[in-house]
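Student: Please help interpret what follows.
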Amino acid sequence: MMKSVYPKWIRCGLVLLALFALAVPLPAAVIAQAPAPVPDTALLSQGSKAMAAVIQRVLPAVVHVNVVTTVETQGDTPDIFNDPFFRRFFGPGLPPSQPPRESQQQKGLGTGFIVSPEGYILTNNHVAGNASKITVKLRDGREFDAKLVGADAGTDLAVIKIDAKDLPIVQFGDSRQLEVGETVIAVGNPFGLEQTVTEGIVSAKGRSQLGLSEYEDFIQTDASINPGNSGGPLIDVTGKVVGVNTAIFSRSGGSMGIGFAIPSDLAQHVMTSLITDGAVHRGFLGVSIQDLTPELAKAMGIQADGGVVVSDVQGDTPAAKAGIRQGDVIVAFSDQPVRTANDLRVRVADVKPGSKTPVALLREGEPLTVHVTLTERPAKAESASGGESGSNEAPKGAPERKLGLALQPLTPDLAEQLGYPGQHGLLVSGVESGSAAEDASLQRGALILQVNRKPVTSLEQFRQIVRGVKSGGKLLLLVRMGPATRYLAVAVS
């Protein structure tokens, strides 16, 4: 064995020096930098590509609808504020309409989607229902003249048809299974920009009392919807249609993140009826109803989580024949819970006339079930106080009915939805054609703040003031329309 030439103390020092060198890192330039960890984006990329593939399957079935409509004009300038196609995209803040002087042809645009290979297309009534000429443009550039198969103003839906075969179609989903917060996609032609896709979520379900149509059960979404999107599909992440885009809430005409779509289950029912019969046949119950408020429930001595109070039963109607009475509280219809008057209106209308349907009631607090055989809804059915045919209707002979008005109190929810936050008054939910109210330029969606300089917040206040005005006199109304407030004079007969 070779003996070391270094003394023991030197050998120990060399060992310590080597250990110290190992403990001290070398300069960064000397050490090759290890690659930074790469984030795993594969899942994100796959999700994005999958969504794009879904949309690509839907796009060929979405069409551009061009229409020509006769509108009333003021002199040489079209009165666009009188055009329902235009008015639908604004809140209640439009200026009052003026008496028309002449007619003029005006072009409009919207969206539709193909529902059968034979060329049936679903769109909105306010797009095609009153058009004198309809042209449909497909994604591949082909154009076809279309004919109106049928339209339903009650839900704002219409079916048109083109003469073509083997067309791409969409599939319907079940809007009843849709949850608030789910991702949805709107497809359409906003402002004429064809094949535009926007994404958002379901913001709310069951929106009603918006004054957009007679039967309201809207899906609310923040997916961007603009003029031109009307009639286009609202699809889920699988590419199935869960709604028909129909309107937005806006003070400027552009999207403000609040759009509304007709649920697919309602749209399918109406579409099938229009294709089969050219009209929609709705069930009729024959009651006047109102929401069961906590105050009413307490006064009636009942406990119920929602429901509607029967305030009147019309004679010789299905309700009367089934034994439904004034004061009954309807809590379920066709085995589905009923929470509001609008719930019941929509469900009754959705049932085929002649169908026998169970109705669950509370009568003086005791549960009871009756079976009602619904009839066809009369063409001029009486309004039913938040019930079967509209807003809270007054009894016959009520002062507002003589003026041609339908009124309802302004709730906080309605105030927020219609752009009247913090305001108090009576909301105009209907104006009869040819009435004194229409002559005074009073419009649906207006908010009555004062009558003869007195604030009004209830129907009874309004009626007391009107009853005090002699025939031939005038009512001075202070009315708010969006951001504008003005006085109107209504003749009392």
